[in-house]
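Practice problem 4.
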């Protein structure tokens, strides 16, 4: 189970990182989308 949780958290971090980059570039819609989907990996 721990390996699965670690994998999901890594995926969520990846999505958050993408969201931050998109936000920095002014792509607000895509940034919100990435952040929104990140929350599904940390349920």
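Answer key:
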């Amino acid at each position: 189970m721990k390996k699965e949780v670690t994998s999901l958290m890594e995926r969520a971090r990846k999505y958050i990182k993408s969201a931050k980059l998109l936000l920095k570039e002014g792509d607000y819609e895509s940034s919100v989308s990435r952040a929104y989907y990140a929350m599904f990996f940390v349920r």
